Amino acid sequence: MTHRRVATWMVGGVAAVALSIGVAWAADLWGRLGVRESQAKSETVRSLTAGSVPFYLAAKAVMAAPSAARAALVVEGLTWAKAFAGTAEFKAAYAQTRNANKPDAPVSKGTPDQQAKAQQDEQRKQIEEMKKSVASMPPELRAQMEQTVKELEAQLKQQAADPKMQELTRQMAAAGAKDEQDQYQRRLADWERDYPAEPSVLVSRRLKQYLDTCADIDYTAKLTSRNGKMYFADQRYESKPSEWKLCYRVGRETLDATRTFARAWLAELTRK
Asked: Given CA atoms 108, 111, 117, 119 in this order, what sign does their dihedral have?
């Protein structure tokens, strides 16, 4: 997962992101933000697992708040998120999401001998289908198709009687089964990495990724107006990902509050 995607977990306007995953510690805050508790909980689980958040849910309300109030809102929101992440309800919801994303094991196609026989049976079936279609063909094509059918039958008979061909078919079947199993093991390893059994491992990962993403915000960067929109005067900053720019937008006080909270939360998880 890239830092750009990870940033959206806690950055998306920082305060907006935090609140969109379920920030509502006080009852009056729910009403002001227009976020349902059930929606907040489901978004928290989805945000942690997917690494992105629809921060637009509460962005307008949060960004309308005074700068000093945003930091307090974020701390409230992250406190709620932290508390919810430690509940049995969250763990059960995460386990359900984790299991739903577990790759399916390859279905056995039988032993190499059974697969070789199944392949021959399928070839015989195809030849029989071709025989049935010959009768409906124009005379000028019928003789050619009949010859083709005879050649295919001869080839199939030869293969069935040739031990080397039979062994080659078995080897190919075995190689195909091994390749499927190897691919499954790779997908399983990716799943175990992306969806660790212990949810606190995932929370720690998101916190680290967030802190890395927001580590170099330059609040001395200058803005310039073009066509009614604001842009960074320095092209280095203008080329930064949108999450970095959103961190800049919410202001130093709000970002510092989120980083302080994230560091403390991460330290607490690390000690466990």
From this structure: positive
